[in-house]
Design brief:
209 residues; mainly alpha; 80% helix
Amino acid sequence: MNSLKNDLKYIPYFLSHPINGFWEIKKEKKGSLLTAILIFVSYLLVMIASAFFTATLFNKNDVFQINIWKIIFPIILLFLLWCVSSWSLTSLFDGEGNFQDIFIATAYALIPILITELALIFISHGIVLEEAAFYDLLRGIGIVWTGFLLFMGMIVTHQYTFLKSILISLFSILGICIIIYVGLLFINLLQQMTGFGVGLYTEWSLRHQ
């Protein structure tokens, strides 16, 4: 418990000093897998809360028809795909980070967007539609800040140069697309095989009645 408390106290320093922060999280254990999981779960809960409690003016969801799994499943899938794709590439290109390091760095990078999305839930009830630009600006800041931390996390975790980190980031995104494409092909093939098997069984059953 004390370790978790210390990890959480370290977050403000991490946000203001991301390079040192990522380094100390990896090398000096200022962060942990447990804290990373807690941050990720908190982000999922914030996104669920956002879908339900954001003011109607800024909420595109019908709160009576929200499917929670449709909110959290894409986030979980994209998070894990980024980690797997990044780990696969860095294993080939001499990255120093292992899968756990990538998972922790990616989770910590979500902190800005977690904070801004939580703030936007409350802000949405205090502004009018004419002030939507401020609402969108704050959301954009969270997204850009998180993207910046993801990039810095890759540099520090794997000890890559700036240009190599850009290259690996692009290939990681491409890797995600390839994994999704192969996954969809597999699902389609599985559905066809299942349909073929059901068809054979139905025909066999009709002939032996």
